[in-house]
């Protein structure tokens, strides 16, 4: 088979593989449980295993590439009797052949691979030693030590942009907008992101428009009630939960840069309708994005739902010493509001205060300076709405903004059991897009 034909066949296999995997709900569920593993590390693990399986399968099939450039023999149409006869002959031939020593072949392949890697490493070390001999007065390299420093020092990998199919009739949820990252060109087509969308089932996507990058996601009309004027109709509990999801998505999107969030529940009933509304305010949006990009003091409003903390205390008290598997209940259905006794309220307030202090300590270590405007005390009351437990400002230079945003995401995951809401604002608050 010619090399060009091989490449086309391999591309076709890749496309079929992605299509089949997208329909495997079990695979999606298993991947969703691996949130603690960085995406690039997880992809490396999966690709290494997949490559090993392919290599083993090729060896078992006995594929021979010596016929490159030659035309393959045409397919023959056999009758059932002819096919049975040939299969019987093939079985007899396989039984007569001695079984290959696969363990020996595997050991030889492993040894060959190891030697190749060692040769490359030795060559690289020799080059480094030669360069050190030429310049002995260079400043010594300071290696990162903390988890945040290691994450910040890790080279950024540019993943291929997977096109996202956005049709005219799609219902669009608008998350945020920011500058296109330095070194990237404007993409002519929307492309998929790693972050989940507002429905927490499909992925969000990026849409480059007039020199800025919009972050959106789609949802089905059956999932959320919408008025004729394009306003989400949410009940109290549903609204509380969706606001938490909205803010968590914004924090995950901040890994792409300093974003200008859109106001909660900014939606469009079609692609053209949302773009028309954006065009009417585009000059103002550009000014707001520039202000956000120049922000150095970031304000954090850390909020919690008393009902969620009370639910955790109730679950703990009814466990009766049994070990309970930790589950992710992301802004799940809350228990009905009820009167909290004084002793339970004290436990809730103590836990909320400890959470607020821990969050502030982590972010304060990254910032140059910080100011606490409010932190919850043991004399605070309870609330059926989102309750503020920490309001603080952090001065973060642009060089450490990515580290600061990553720390916020880590804090979200570290406290996922409590369903906290991290609301971060810069020089501009969330942008209210005018209605059509």
Describe the structure in your own words:
- With 436 residues, this protein is an alpha+beta fold.
- Among the domains are: 171-295, no CATH class; 298-318 and 328-425, no CATH class.
- Helices cover 45% and strands 14% of the residues.
- The chain is built from twelve helices and ten strands.
- It has helices at residues 3-22, 25-32, 39-61, 80-96, 102-134, 147-153, 236-253, 271-280, 282-293, 306-318, 342-364, 401-414, and strands at residues 171-179, 191-196, 203-209, 212-219, 260-261, 267-268, 297-304, 369-375, 387-395, 421-425.
- Strands 1, 2, 3, 4, 5 and 6 form a six-stranded antiparallel sheet that branches.
- A hairpin with a 2-residue loop joins strand 3 and strand 4.
- The radius of gyration is 28 Å and the shape is globular.
Rg, Å, rounded: 28 Å
Main beta sheet strand tally, sense and closure: 6 strands, antiparallel
SS-derived structural category:
alpha+beta
Order of helices and strands: HHHHHHEEEEHEEHHEHHEEHE
Strand content: 5-15%
Features of this protein?
436 residues, alpha+beta, six-stranded antiparallel β-sheet, four-stranded antiparallel β-sheet, 12 helices, 45% helix, globular
């Amino acid at each position: 088979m010619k090399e060009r034909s091989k490449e086309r066949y391999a591309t076709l296999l890749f496309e079929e593989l992605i299509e089949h995997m997208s329909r495997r709900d079990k695979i999606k569920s298993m991947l969703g449980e691996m949130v603690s593993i960085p995406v690039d590390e997880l992809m490396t693990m999966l690709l290494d295993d997949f490559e090993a399986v392919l290599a083993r399968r090729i060896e078992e099939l006995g594929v021979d590439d010596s016929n490159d450039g030659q035309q393959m023999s045409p397919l023959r149409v056999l009758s059932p009797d002819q096919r049975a006869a040939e299969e019987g002959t093939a079985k007899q031939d396989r039984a007569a052949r001695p079984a290959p020593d696969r363990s020996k072949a595997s050991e030889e392949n492993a040894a060959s691979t190891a030697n190749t890697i060692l040769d490359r490493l030795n060559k690289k070390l020799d080059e480094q030693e030669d360069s050190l001999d030429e310049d002995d007065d260079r400043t010594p390299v300071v290696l990162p030590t903390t988890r945040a420093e290691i994450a910040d020092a890790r080279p950024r990998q540019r993943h291929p942009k997977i096109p996202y199919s956005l049709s005219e009739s799609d219902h669009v949820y608008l998350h945020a907008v920011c500058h296109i990252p330095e070194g990237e060109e404007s993409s002519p087509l929307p492309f998929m992101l790693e972050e989940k969308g507002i429905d927490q089932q499909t992925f969000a996507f990026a849409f480059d428009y007039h020199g800025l990058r919009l972050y959106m996601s789609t949802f089905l009309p059956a999932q959320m009630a919408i008025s004729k004027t394009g306003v989400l109709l949410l009940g109290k509990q549903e609204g509380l939960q969706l606001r938490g999801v909205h803010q968590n998505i914004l924090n995950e999107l901040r890994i792409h840069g300093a974003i200008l969030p859109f106001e909660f529940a900014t939606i469009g009933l079609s692609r053209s309708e949302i773009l028309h509304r954006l065009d009417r305010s585009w000059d103002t949006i550009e000014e707001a994005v520039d202000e956000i990009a120049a922000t150095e003091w970031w304000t954090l409003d850390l909020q919690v739902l008393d009902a969620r903390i009370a639910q955790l205390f109730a679950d703990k008290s009814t466990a009766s010493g049994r070990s309970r598997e930790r589950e992710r209940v992301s802004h799940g259905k809350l228990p009905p509001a009820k009167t909290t006794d004084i002793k339970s309220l004290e436990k809730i307030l103590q836990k909320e205060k400890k959470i607020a202090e821990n969050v502030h300590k982590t972010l304060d270590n990254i910032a140059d300076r910080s100011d606490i405007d409010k932190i919850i005390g043991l004399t605070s009351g309870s609330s059926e709405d989102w309750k503020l437990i920490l309001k603080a400002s952090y001065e973060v230079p642009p060089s450490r903004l990515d580290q600061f945003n990553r720390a916020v995401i880590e804090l979200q995951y570290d406290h996922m059991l409590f369903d906290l809401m991290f609301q971060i604002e810069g020089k501009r608050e969330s942008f209210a897009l005018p209605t059509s």
